[in-house]
Request: fold
Amino acid sequence: MDMTNFHVYVGRDQAQTLPEIRKIGPSDVKSALVSGIDDFRAMPSHLAFLALVYPLCGMIIAYVTSQQNLLHLLFPLASGFALIGPFAAIGLYEMSRRRELGMETSWRHALNVVRSPSIPSIVALGLLLMALFLAWLAIAQLLFTWLFGDALPTSYGQFLKDVLTTTRGWTLIVLGCFIGFCFALVTFSVSVVAFPLLLDRDVGAAAAVAASIRAVAENPVAMALWGLVVVAALIIGSAPFFVGLVIIMPILGHATWHFYRRVIVRDPTQEHPVDWPAEPLPGSAHERVAPHSFLFPWPKEKP
Reply:
């Protein structure tokens, strides 16, 4: 494996100090939410622009499932937002980072994350979350087929009747919620602070995931509370045809950055520059890796 690409997984400097985890409590969860709301108030137009993606996707999901007789996948698809949300909110973390540093913030700065030295690691971790999302959909489909066979629901009324008034339906609810909880727990553990950490430091995907898991293990009560807050907020935002996510998602995205700041002890010597150069100089510490290298990390053969 080419060592210039290996840092996608372990970070450019393999001898760097591992992120230090801080003990936190419920007050830190509250403070992170307050800071997230403050960021939303300071940058509402930019955040609304970004968050419109979520209700739009929600309406597309509802339309596709109703037209293609895939109503049984509506809940797994909708709940899947929680699985890919940490990756989708990466632009919001960047806006909070810039505001924290007293820099100019606008919607275009949210897109500047593509210039981050950690972007290959960020994309690699995003692909992991996408794989978990697809696995969740596949298992949901298998569970429905196991209980109801190959016959698909033809209307919302029939589907709700089958689910709420039959033994098979209640089995689907119980097992589905349990399996979904397991997927959510895994996703939460590997990503709760991983994406903000990669945006902040070039530690590599493996170190970011390890730090996230350690943070959950060392702060079980606070992390459980944070997870409940996220789930409750997403449910509230999704209820009115996903429109509430226009406000909920930006607040959660910004709050996640501030939550990360409270969980991981800062180390200015390892943080990324205040602003990233448009094009890193060849051979510099922040030279970008070729876009394909996080998927195919072996060297090209010379002709």
User: Anything to note?
Assistant: Confidence is low (pLDDT under 50) at residues 1-6, 278-303.
